[in-house]
């Protein structure tokens, strides 16, 4: 008999992805405004507020652990559908083709556009020159192992390499720990593993391997969503409170140094994990909540479907736009307004085109259904809605 159990739709995950992607895009638009340090010197309060967008990557990592663990949490013995290698194959198909397409695109742009080939005292300077080691390491997804490679070509792509490595740890380390010990001890080990790697191998600190613990927080959130029984109505407000603490920390006294960075990003990860449990349990019970109302807003859900394209494509395009604006000699505030309210929308449109031409071919069945449903809304034709769990 086929499984006809209705599973909840976790659209809030797509909405949260959208918020994270747009936040990091605004953060990078600010970082690329003018020459290095211009915004920090002229608009320090704005720079601190916008820096909250730098927490987008921890949000993505927790979400990744959550989404990948949801189907596993429903099985006996924490089994991966199809086994380890099919899981790796699914992850490779989803992540790698768009990544390599974006890498090729920006290598071509750097080769063809002279202004991208030379430093101009901007945030673009550490993306060039493209060295042989930088290129090979990007192809092998190990560019996060060296400070000299990590930001070449496309700065945000370092986190793709880190997440790719964590994908292997899930079946080889994290899930076995869940089976042999228990999920909470797995979380303790994962939270300790990243700082240990950073201490033992300082050059690997570039890879932010404390994200292993954040990924594990997402896994625990998925387990509590699927298997939890206690009342968690308070958890959403607790998540908001913890995130507010991290935001205030950033605005009032930006975390400085590796330990402060680990602590602040783990704090954000814990807040996101708690929020996911609260929204996931509400979705399972078919109850509306404040979090679900915010993150399941259809425009956000739609943007979340192509948030990976935003993350892959936006940064070098913002860098190019800033270099083209420099000769105008705009005041810093005017330059920032142009970057955020004129340039960024154009960049997002290019990201959307990249999604349609490249990434869409490699999306999950869940994302394809959601995209088709949203496209149907715009044309007036909608197909039947199918209940689903979030798929990866």
Compute the number of helices. 16
Question: Over the alpha carbons, how many angstroms does the gyration radius reach?
Answer: 21 Å
Please give the alpha-carbon distance between the first and last residues: 24 Å
How much of the sequence lies in strands comes to: under 5%
Count of spatially separate domains: 1
Class per helix and strand makeup: mainly alpha
Assembly context of the chains: single chain
| String of helices and strands | HHHHHHHHHHHHHHHH
Low-pLDDT windows of residues? 1-5, 381-392
Mean pLDDT: 89
Describe the structure.
- Residues 383-392 have a biased composition (Basic and acidic residues).
- The chain crosses the membrane at residues 16-35, 55-74, 95-116, 157-177, 184-203, 209-227, 234-252, 258-279, 300-321, 333-358.
- InterPro entries: Acyl_transf_3_dom (IPR002656), Acyltransferase_3 (IPR050879).
- Residues 368-392 are annotated as: Disordered.
- The chain is globular and about 60 Å long.
- The protein starts with 11 loop residues before the first helix and ends in a 13-residue tail after the last helix.
- Helix 4 (56-73) crosses helix 9 (211-227), helix 5 (84-112) runs parallel beside helix 14 and helix 14 crosses helix 15.
- It has one domain.
- The chain contains 16 helices and no strands.
- The chain is an all-alpha fold and 392 residues long.
- It has helices at 12-31, 38-42, 44-50, 56-73, 84-112, 132-140, 158-180, 183-200, 211-227, 235-252, 258-284, 290-295, 298-305, 307-325, 332-357, 365-379.
């Amino acid at each position: 008999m086929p499984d006809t159990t209705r599973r909840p739709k976790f659209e809030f995950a797509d909405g949260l992805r959208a918020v994270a992607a747009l936040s990091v895009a605004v953060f990078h638009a600010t970082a690329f405004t003018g020459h290095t340090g211009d915004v920090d010197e002229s608009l320090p309060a704005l720079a601190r507020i916008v820096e909250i967008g730098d927490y987008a990557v921890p949000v993505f990592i927790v979400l990744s652990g959550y989404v990948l663990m949801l189907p596993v949490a429903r099985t006996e013995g924490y089994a991966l559908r199809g086994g380890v290698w099919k899981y790796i194959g699914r992850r490779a198909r989803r992540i790698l083709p768009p990544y390599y397409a974006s890498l090729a695109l920006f290598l071509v742009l750097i080769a063809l556009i002279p202004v991208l080939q030379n430093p101009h005292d901007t945030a673009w300077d550490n993306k060039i020159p493209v060295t042989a080691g930088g290129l090979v390491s990007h192809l092998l997804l190990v560019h996060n192992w060296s400070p000299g490679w990590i930001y070449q070509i496309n700065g945000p792509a370092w986190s793709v390499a880190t997440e790719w490595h964590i994908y292997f740890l899930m079946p080889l380390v994290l899930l076995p720990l869940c089976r042999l010990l228990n999920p909470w001890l797995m979380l303790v080990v994962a939270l300790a593993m990243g700082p240990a790697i950073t201490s033992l191998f300082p050059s690997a600190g570039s890879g932010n391997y404390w994200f292993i613990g954040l990924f594990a927080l997402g896994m625990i959130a998925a387990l509590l969503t699927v298997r939890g029984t206690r009342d968690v109505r308070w958890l959403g407000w607790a998540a908001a409170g913890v995130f507010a603490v991290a935001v205030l920390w950033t605005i009032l006294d930006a975390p400085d140094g590796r330990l402060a960075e680990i602590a602040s990003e783990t704090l954000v990860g814990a807040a996101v994990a708690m929020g996911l449990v609260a929204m996931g349990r509400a979705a399972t019970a078919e109850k509306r909540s404040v979090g679900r109302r915010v993150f399941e807003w259809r425009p956000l859900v739609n943007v979340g479907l192509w948030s990976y394209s935003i993350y892959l494509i936006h940064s070098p395009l913002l860098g190019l736009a800033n270099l083209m604006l420099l000769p105008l000699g705009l005041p810093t505030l005017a330059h920032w307004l142009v970057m955020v309210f004129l340039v960024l929308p154009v960049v997002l449109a290019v990201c959307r085109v990249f999604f349609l031409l490249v990434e869409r071919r490699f999306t999950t069945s869940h994302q394809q259904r959601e995209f088709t449903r949203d496209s149907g809304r715009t044309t007036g034709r909608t197909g039947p809605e199918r209940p689903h769990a979030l798929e990866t």
